[in-house]
Every structure is written in structure tokens, then in C-alpha cells.
Amino acid sequence: MQQPSTTLSSADLIQLEDRYGAHNYHPLPVVLAKGRGVYVWDVEGKRYFDFLSAYSAVNQGHCHPRIVDALVEQARELTLTSRAFYNDQLGRYEEYLTNYFGFDKVLPMNTGAEGVETAIKIARKWGYEKKGIPTNEARVIVCGQNFHGRTTTIISFSSDPDAKGNFGPYTPGFQAVPYNDLEALKEALAYEPEKIAAFLVEPIQGEAGVFVPDEGFIAAAAEMCRQHNVLFIADEIQTGIGRTGALLRICGDCTCAGHCEQQETYTRPDILILGKAISGGVYPVSAVLANNEVMDVIQPGQHGSTFGGNPLACAVAREALEVIRDEKLTQNARQLGIRFRERMQHLVDQYPQILTLVRGKGLLNAVVINDSPDSKTAWNICVKLAEHGLLAKPTHGNIIRFAPPLVMTEEQLEECCDIIATVIASFAEAK
Ligand SMILES: *Cc1c(COP(=O)(O)O)cnc(C)c1O
User: CA spacing 20 to 30 A to 212: which of 5, 12, 103, 254?
Assistant: First the structure.
């Protein structure tokens, strides 16, 4: 591999970040300079398998040539007009996206958190104008251990003390129920349902540690919402776009987002939030999808963003979604995921003193380390994995998420499982 044109070492670059950047992250000590497909390289030229995929933003693989070409070509023509004028990419993208996911309309934004904020605003406005909730009394039900982003309103309903502590006063109007608990949701919906605008949920809780709800939870929750005239909002920023072996996780195990014979099993949310892999990690793009009766509560001047729906974002996102379809990445994620969990389960059985369990769907998986969340074991395993050429990151202390790009081949996956097995075996020996 050609050396990047930098004379600074990994240690130098880490020092620069440490000295000049806010300390709002705690990265593994690896400095990356290049990425292609499932691989990334550090500044010294060492190659790694990427098992985080930028929190599932890089489902299509690093620097996918088709997506990068779309970016470069569009960048030469027009990058930003603001929404004060029309542009020649937005309408085409909106048509493509709404057909792709089966909704009437989309509201384009940039980051995931903005998408969630947008969904909350739409739901509240719908609550007042369509449902007849008395002014300023709308409630949104959320789930415990949720992760929906980092804005002041979103952290107001987080249960993570790091995310929330000393950032108050908090935005009112949110009520948390335990995740995957239909009884608790039923009870919450029974209390003044005329004031409840929406239920906001992740179909699998990614940041919490890849918590997969019981079969049927999402469908039953959506049906309860329908009965109470409460909007069902699915945050698929991490789970969407093929990651879990379905185009959307709310499709259950079907790959086609409601465009097939299994349509009756598709739980259609009233509002769908997408981000991350919608651009293949090439550019910040998020989207909020809904049908007309919901989306039309937003009128000119009531919501927007300077960069939202810019031509560059539109060209990139359209190509990124085409890649998902053309390369059958959803199907690949599903098949490789089955094999990955099989191999990890084998390790769990073999080394119960190190591994407690494996869980996940498609290529969104996690193993739980048999040690307390305050221990350094998961971190140390990740450091060792990096030495062996595989990058993963612990979440909540003793959970390791494994989420490689969906362009991985079977052979590469087997090689990666061998690396993980070697490292786990070395920890078992040392214990
Ligand atoms: C990453 C994520 C977000 C926030 O997205 P940002 O682009 O980081 O603002 C929101 N919801 C879920 C489920 C996510 O995984």
C-alpha cells in the first residue's frame, strides 16, 4: 500500500487530538488514514478489518467507488443552494427515496439527531392540529436505555447518566417505559391517551448493546399505538438500510420493505427516521419519512436546515441506496449474520469464563463479556483484536459490538471469526 503523505506518526496524531480537541470521545489508540471496502489502514500502513463501520454508517463499505464518484461528479456541478431555491437533485432523490421505502413524503436533514428532532416536532404538531391535544400538553413515550442522539431535547429522555448529567434543565413531555415490555407500554398508553402524540422506539437498541426485542414486540406495539391514535415512530438510523438482514428492521426478517408477498408482516411506522448508511458514510444525510396526513402538518417556515436536501447529499444518498439494492447487501448481511452468530456461539460454549452470550440480527451483533461493566476486560480484548488486525469497540463496559461493512465476503468473515477465536482463547488461557 502507498504510504499516505504524512510524516506524523500515530502517537503524534493522537497527541494533537488530545491537545487541541475536546475530550468528548475515548477512542481506541488507532489512527486511520485510508479505507476500502471492509478494510481500513492506519498511518503506519497496518491493515484492519473494520467491525464498527462507523456505527453502521458504512454498510456499503469504505469509499465505495460508485458513491465516491457520485459525490465527486455532483461536487463539480453544484453543492449547496439552500432551500430558498429549488435544485435539480432534490426532487429526483425524494421520488426515489419515498418509492424505495413506500412513503408519500420525506423531510431531508443531515444528522441522525436532527432526524429524531424533526420526527418529534412533526409528532407534536400532528398531536395538536390533528389529534386535538390541548396546547403544550403533548406527551411522547420513549424506551428505557434508548439512544436517539445528543441534542438537549433528546438527552432529556436518555437514561444514560453520562449523556444527561449536568445538561439540564431538561425538555419536558417525554415518558420512558422499559424496552420490550408490552404491559408497560399498554399501561402508559392507558393514562390520558388523548394527550399522547407518539411512541418513539429503536427496533433493535444498538447503542444499548444490541438488544433485540421479542418476536412480535414491534408489531404489537405498533398496533397498540394505532388503537390509541398515537403515532408510531421507528428510529432506524442504526438498524435500517440492510444492516440487520432486512432493508428495515420493522420488516421483521423480510428484505424488501413492504414491496413483496410478505407485506402483511411489515409493520409500517407512521414516521420512519433514517441516517447513517443512507449515504454509505460518505456525507451526513438523514431523512424523516411519513405519509401526507402526517407530513403535511409542516408548512413553510416551520422547520428546516441550511444543508438539508442539498444537491450533494441527494446525489450521494441515491447512489448509496442503489448500491444496497444492486449488490444485494441486505441478503448478504442476513446470511453472514447467521454464520457469525454460529461461530460466536461456539466460542461462548467453549469459553464461558470469557463470553456470556452472543445476540443480534444480520450483521448487527454483540457479545457480552463475562465480567462486570466496570472491568477493563472488553476494552483489553478490543485492544488485542486491534493488534490482530480487527477493529471493534466496547459499549457499556462489557459488551463488544461486531458490525462489519455488509460488503464482506464469506471467506473474510471466516478469517475474522478466526481472529476473534484466537484472541478469546488467549484471554481464556491467561485467566
Ligand atoms: C447514531 C444514532 C442516532 C444519532 O445519529 P447522529 O448522526 O449521530 O446524530 C440516533 N438514533 C440511533 C438509533 C442511532 O444509532
Answer: 103
CA of 235 to the centre of ligand 1 (A): 8
Q: Which atom of ligand 1 is nearest to the CA of 236?
A: 13
The residues facing 200 across adjacent strands are 233
> Is the CB of 275 within 6 Å of ligand 1?
yes
User: For the chain, what is the mean pLDDT?
Assistant: 95
Residue 263 is given by DSSP the state: G
- pLDDT higher than threshold 80 for residue 300: yes
Nearest to 338 by CA among 366, 361, 367, 368: 361
Which mutation among 236, 238, 307 tests ligand 1's pocket best, with the greatest number of atoms within 8 A of CB? 238
Which atom of ligand 1 is closest in space to residue 238's alpha carbon? Answer: 15
Helix (H/G/I), strand (E/B), else coil: 144: coil
Nearest CA to 267 out of 294, 232, 295, 243 is that of 232
Q: Strands, E, within 226-285: which ranges?
A: 231-235, 271-274
What domains lie within the chain, and their CATH numbers?
Answer: 10-60+329-430 (3.90.1150.10), 65-326 (3.40.640.10)
**For the CA of 286, the nearest atom of ligand 1:** 7
Q: How far does residue 238's CA lie from ligand 1's centre (Å)?
A: 7
C-alpha cell at 291: 405519509
pLDDT in tens, 231-258: 999 999 999 999 999 999 988 776 565 5
- Ligand 1 mean position to 213 CA, how many Å? 19
Residue 56 has a pLDDT of 98
The closest residue, in CA terms, to atom 15 on ligand 1 is 238
How many CB atoms within 10 Å of residue 188? 22
Query: Could you tell me if the CB of 203 is within 6 A of ligand 1?
Result: no
Please state, in angstroms and rounded to a whole number, the distance separating the CA atoms of residues 36 and 195: 49
Could you list the beta-strand ranges (E) of 98-173.
Answer: 105-109, 139-143
| pTM score over 0.90 | yes
Is the distance from CB of 329 to CB of 320 less than 8 angstroms?
A: no
Ligand 1 in contact with 115 (CB < 6 A)?
Answer: no
Residues with Cβ within 8 Å of 93's Cβ and at least 6 positions away in sequence, in order, are 108, 309, 314, 315, 317, 318
Catalytically active residues are 147, 235, 276
